[in-house]
Design a protein that fits this description.
about 250 residues, Deoxyribonuclease I, Chain A, six-stranded mixed beta sheet, about 25% helix, about 25% strand, DNA-binding
DNA sequence: ATGTCGCCTCATAGGCGA
């Protein structure tokens, strides 16, 4: 079972790259973030052989799951704040696995309500994660976490010190997820590797110089972690014309 | 501070979010 996650920075602008990548990589499941529009092309992906479930919003955010297997949508909102209307969360059941797609708030600039929202969102997510552990469910949470877990997960820590994705408050919450028993799929299989990123700025030839950050992750619940066979970052799409600023991360489960 | 995208509109330029 091959499962991938990709922040596409507008599904409309990225329809060709996504199609090309699906046909080449043939994942069973693809988690998409930053759809950036009210419409999701359900029928189009159906012609490519993928079922879909999407949570959309005008202009901003938006998450979707494509799957070759039937999708049971469990929830389109993250518990804990009735006033939160952002399209950032999609909880599903596919082939007996809880598949949760998140677009965690960026949180910049630090010191504003946006950063408070990010931290509150991370706290709300922790309750769901604790629940999955308690019920001993096979599940995974994938997506754009907007968190650089460790210094090795960016090209140069000093250039991120004022960024919300690098703040101690963001990173300690991410580490608390791991302390609960979740496995960071990429890091567990590549414990020492540096310079492996999923996101690079559009500016200043960041990709060419590999000045990026590892902020797109798969967290595996204890019940499913032993099934992890591989986790790789596919930098191919980032090198193409008109790319997203993120590139796909791919896991394989036995 | 800056750079570059993609979105939207009090729309073909500028603001917002990333």
């Amino acid at each position: 079972m091959k499962i991938a996650s990709w922040n596409v920075n507008s599904i409309r602008a990225r329809l060709e790259p996504v199609t090309k990548w699906l046909e080449k990589s043939k994942p069973d499941i693809l988690l998409l973030q930053e759809l950036k529009g009210s419409e999701f092309p359900v029928d189009y992906f159906k012609t490519l052989g993928y079922e879909s479930s999407a949570v959309t919003q005008k202009s901003y955010n938006g998450v979707a799951i494509l799957s070759r297997h039937p999708i049971e949508t469990i929830s389109t909102t993250l518990n804990g704040d009735e006033t939160d209307s952002h399209a950032r969360f999609l909880d599903t059941l596919i082939d007996g696995i809880r598949v949760i797609n998140i677009y965690l708030p960026n949180g910049n600039p630090v010191g504003t309500a946006k950063f408070d929202y990010k931290l509150a969102w991370m706290d709300r997510l922790s309750f769901l994660l604790a629940d999955l552990i308690k019920k001993d469910e096979p599940g995974l949470i994938g997506g754009d976490f907007n968190v650089i877990p460790e210094d090795v997960d960016c090209h140069k820590p000093s250039s991120w010190v004022y960024d919300a994705i690098f703040q101690p408050e963001s990173r300690s919450r991410y580490r608390a997820y791991l302390a609960m028993g979740y496995t960071d799929a990429f890091r567990s299989l590549h414990p020492e590797e540096s310079g492996k990123f999923t996101y690079w700025d559009y500016f200043r030839k960041a990709f060419e110089y590999n000045r990026g950050a590892r902020i797109d992750h798969f967290l595996l619940s204890p019940k499913i972690a032993s099934r992890l066979r591989s986790c790789e970052i596919d930098t191919g799409p980032r090198a193409e014309e008109k790319p997203s600023d993120h590139t796909p991360i791919v896991i394989e489960l036995s």
